[in-house]
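Chain A, query sequence.
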Amino acid sequence: MAESGKRGNILLTWGPTILFGVLLPWITYGMLIDHGMHEVPALLLISCWPLVELTIYFAMKRRVDEFSMLILITLLLGAVSALAYNSAKLLFLKDSALTGLLGLAFLVSLTLKRPLIFYFGRKFGTDGTPEGIADWNAMWDKYPGFRAGQRRLTIVWGVTFLAEAGVKAGLVYVLDTETMVGVSNVLPLVILAGLMVYTIRAGKQGRARREAAEAAAAAEAEAEAEGAAAQARA
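Chain A, predicted structure.
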């Protein structure tokens, strides 16, 4: 029962983001283009979907969902920047620029109280319940190693996105349009999959270190208590 409840909470966390941030914008954009709408107004209109999710989330939770906000900003940047581009090459460069801006956002977030990857972890690394979110927030205050790990992951994500942007921008001038279409669709998925694998592995290693440290501290405290009791009996 507890396991099914956990799966349900994870579904509630991931479901709206996938629906409003990926599926509905993609489906709506295709429908608008098929009906003859220009790219720019279509991009502006599909940006309303993450805004709908943000509104619903705020009405239910009374706080802003950081990941949905990032999707909204990305879509709006794509819509606004599309005004300046009228060729395939420049559109590919625009996509590279957005990837680079995302990388910069990760690195700039290191100057904030909590880096951007912390909020991604809270979004996708918990079951979305108030208890799960509170436990995640508490780890930031309780474990210095957790804070260091979150900052390290933020650097890795930021630098990787910047490198991806540079590679894609360079390939624009080397590959033909047909090949570049395939590369621009596949490369981000490969990069994201690699980052997710690295992040999950780093999270497991960090959790193992915290558990080992807690076990060692508990054993030390128990040994001290037994020593104090022995001295008291003597």
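The chain has a mean pLDDT of 76. The first helix runs from residue 2 to 34.
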